[in-house]
From TrEMBL:
This is Zinc-finger domain-containing protein.
Amino acid sequence: MMISCKKAALICNKVQYREATFLERLKLKFHLFVCKNCPEFSRQNSRLTSLCQQADLRSLSETDKKKMKEILKEEF
């Protein structure tokens, strides 16, 4: 049932976006209990997610991206 640190990091990311299954979350909790390094990664990942949510980051729509590319092509 022990997973690698790499797999734990992937599951940690899935947990942040609520995409992890119950079994994956269980494996991650066990891994975080026995691993020395991964709990810090998990805390930092949670903190980063929290900061991004607080910043209310938005990305450009596909239409706006195309317009920007056209403008840049014209200028250069």
